[in-house]
C-alpha cells in the first residue's frame, strides 16, 4: 500500500477538479490521452472522475481504469452509499483503485448545505469510510472546506475517519481562503493533535481564489503533508487549483527544502502536457503563467536581455529545457537594447563588421515604437534597407527591366554598381527570376548555386511586400540572403545580392 514517509505523492486531479471548469468537459478518449501523458509524467495518483455524476463520467473512469496501469486511479464520491457503489463499479478493472469520499467540515457547510450538526456529519463521514472500505483498501477522505473549519472539530473528524480505515486524509482549502501561515498551522495542528495521524498520509488540496493555492500547498508540505493535489496549468473550479508544474518546479528548484528527491516527475514533459491540456480543454494558458506561460522564459527589456545573453542565470532561476521548452526567448521591443539587437542580427547571419550598430539601433527604435514587437521579418526588412545603404565595396542593383509572358522568352536587363562603377548586362532564363540572376552573374563573372529559394508575403494580399529568402552556395560555403520588394523579381534579385555581398565584400576589399 502506498505510504512511504520518504515520498511526496503527486495526486493529479486535472480530469476531475480540472474538468469542473465550464466548457472544459472531455470525452473518454480525450481523458485517456491526457491520462497516458500524466502516467508518463510520473504522477502517483490520477483522479479520473466522479462516477455517479453522469453515465459519461462513469464510463471514463471504467476505461481509464483499464488503460492506465501504473498510477493509482481514484474516483470521487459524496459520503453516501449510492456514490460509493457507483465508484466501486467504475473502478472494477483498476490495478490500483482508490475511493475518495468525504463531506463538508466547516460550520458554514454543516449548517447551510446539510442543515445538520457537527456530530451527525462526523457520523456520516465515518459511515462512508467504513462502507467504502468493504470494497477498496485505499480510501482517501476529504474534509470539504477544511480551510474554514474549526481545527479542534477537524481533528476529531480526521481521527475518526482514520480509525474507520482512511489511508489518506485530504484537508482541502476548498474556497482558497487560507493564508500560507494559517494553512500550514492547520496541518501542523492535525499532525500534533490527531492520535493516529501517522497511519494516514495527509493530503493538501488548495484552491486559488486569492492566488495562494501553490503557496498554501507548500506550507502544508512543510508542516507534515505527504501528498499534493494539483492540476496541469492550475485549472479547476473557479480560480482553479494548485498548479502541478508550479509545485514540482518549486520542489526541484529549492533543493534545500529536501523534497526534490521525494517526487518522481519527468519535468521535461511539463510544457508539452500543458499545451495538450490547454488545447483539449479549451483553456488558454495566460502568457505570464509561471513555468508554462508563453512569457515564462521570454525576456523583453534591454537590461534583462543583456544580462541573460551574458549569463542566463542572471534572470532565470530555472533552465527552460528542464520543463521541456527549447530555449529562452529574447523578444525585441522598444525596451530592448543594442546587445539584444546584435544577438538577433547575428542569429540571422549578419556580420556585425558590416553594420553600424548605433545607426541601425536608432532605426530599430523608430520601428519598435510603432510595432511593439519586432519579429525576424521586420528585422530582415529593416536590414535589407540598411544593407543597401551601407554597401561600400559590394554589389548594388541600380535598375532592373524584365520582359516575360507566355509568348516570349523571359529576359532581364540589369544595371549594377560594382566598386563605384556601373555595369549593364542582359540575359535570358526559363523565368524572370532566372533571367535576372543570369544577368547579374554575367556582370560578376561567376555562377553560384542557389540551394533554397522561398517567397513569402509579409502581411498577406496581392499588393503586399514580398520577402524572399535564398541560400546561395559559394566555395562550398552557404550564405543566406534576404530581399524585400513589392515586386517579387526585384525581391529575388535583392535576396541574391544580399547573399553575394556577404562573401563579395569580404574577398574584394580595396587594397
Ligand atoms: C468541492 C468539490 O469540488 S466537490 C465536487 C464537485 N463536483 C460536482 O459537483 C460534479 C458532479 N456533481 C453532479 O453530477 C451532481 O451534483 C450530483 C450527481 C453529485 C448530485 O446531483 P443531485 O442529486 O441532483 O444534487 P445536487 O447536485 O443538486 O445537490 C447536491 C446534494 O448532495 C449533497 N451533498 C453535497 N456534498 C455532499 C457530500 N460530500 N456528502 C454527502 N452529500 C453531499 C447536498 O447536500 C445536496 O443534497 P440534498 O439534495 O439533500 O440537498
Ligand atoms: C472534493 C474536494 C476534495 C474538493 O475538490 C475540494 O474541497 O476543493
Ligand atoms: Mg477542489
UniProtKB/TrEMBL annotation:
PROSITE patterns assigned: AIPM_HOMOCIT_SYNTH_1, AIPM_HOMOCIT_SYNTH_2, PYR_CT
Pfam family, one: HCS_D2
SMART domains on file: LeuA_dimer
Chain positions recorded as Mn(2+) binding sites: 17, 205, 207, 241
CDD domains registered for this protein in UniProt: DRE_TIM_IPMS (cd07940)
Cofactors required: Mn(2+)
Function: Catalyzes the condensation of the acetyl group of acetyl-CoA with 3-methyl-2-oxobutanoate (2-ketoisovalerate) to form 3-carboxy-3-hydroxy-4-methylpentanoate (2-isopropylmalate).
Family, per entry: Belongs to the alpha-IPM synthase/homocitrate synthase family. LeuA type 1 subfamily.
Protein name: 2-isopropylmalate synthase
Lineage: Bacteria, Pseudomonadati, Bacteroidota, Sphingobacteriia, Sphingobacteriales
